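Question (not urgent): is this output format expected?
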Amino acid sequence: MSLEKFEWEANRIRQVEVSRFRTLVTEFEGGKTQTRSKTKLPRRWVLDFEKQNMTKDEANEIREFFEDHRGRHLPFLFDYKKDDGTVEENITVKFDTDTLDRQEEESTIYRFRIPIVEVL
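Got this back:
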């Protein structure tokens, strides 16, 4: 299956930095425990769109892309432009929400905040 690519450029892309670990702890009858590290955790980003003079068609394209992927259901590809200017291409991600809130002011300003999560 070929994945679609999220092509719209956000005003700001923020990688959510969280230090979390997935550790499996097994306790034995004698009271001793064994700990093992599980899989790595997925990376998360928040895409902020605040487009002045974005056309209604462009705003609708983003909404339609979200609806076509049924919120968190279907994966897609995403290019992450890092702070140093390098681009990590074709990261497989999903939306991290089932709700897209779009704010519209006078049909000239559209605002979105879209969380996404890496698919491992």
